[in-house]
């Protein structure tokens, strides 16, 4: 029996070995910057994997308290603050 709402595991990465903390906030977690911390690997790359439903999801990283776009994401949308949200399509 097929799942009516297809979901996919998506790994988000942010490269900044000097960062002290990296979180991700987006349309998938009510833009709450404290919900999803990323973990730094031995090479200094911050990572987390989230299971998302099909569709487009906007997000930003919070690096040491500063909201930033995902430099690796080719998709972005203007937000209400005059900056851009990164977009992942599942």
CATH superfamily: Immunoglobulins
Shape: globular
Measure the end-to-end span. 21 Å
- Estimate what percentage of residues fall within beta strands: over 45%
Integer count of domains: 1
Q: Helical percent range?
A: under 10%
Q: Which CATH architecture is right?
A: Sandwich
CATH class: Mainly Beta
SSE order: EEEEEEEEE
Sheet with most strands? 6 strands, antiparallel
User: Which structural class fits the helix and strand makeup?
Assistant: mainly beta
Number of helices: 0
Summarize the structure.
The protein is mainly beta and 90 residues long.
Descriptive keywords:
single chain, 90 residues, mainly beta, Immunoglobulin-like, 9 strands
What does this structure look like?
With 90 residues, this protein is mainly beta. The chain has a single domain, classed as Immunoglobulins (Immunoglobulin-like), CATH 2.60.40. Helix content is 0%, strand content 52%. The protein has no helices and nine strands. Strands 2, 3, 6, 7, 8 and 9 form a six-stranded antiparallel β-sheet that branches. Strands 1-5-4 form a three-stranded antiparallel β-sheet, with no helix packed on it. The model has no long low-confidence stretch (mean pLDDT 93).
């Amino acid at each position: 029996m097929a799942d009516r709402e297809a979901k996919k595991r998506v790994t988000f990465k942010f490269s900044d070995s000097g960062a002290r903390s990296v979180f991700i906030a987006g349309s998938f977690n009510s833009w709450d910057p404290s919900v999803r911390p990323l973990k730094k690997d031995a090479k200094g790359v911050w990572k987390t994997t989230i299971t998302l439903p099909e569709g487009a999801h906007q997000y930003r990283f919070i690096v040491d308290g500063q909201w930033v776009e995902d430099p690796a994401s080719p998709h972005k949308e203007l937000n209400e603050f005059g900056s851009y949200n990164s977009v992942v399509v599942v």
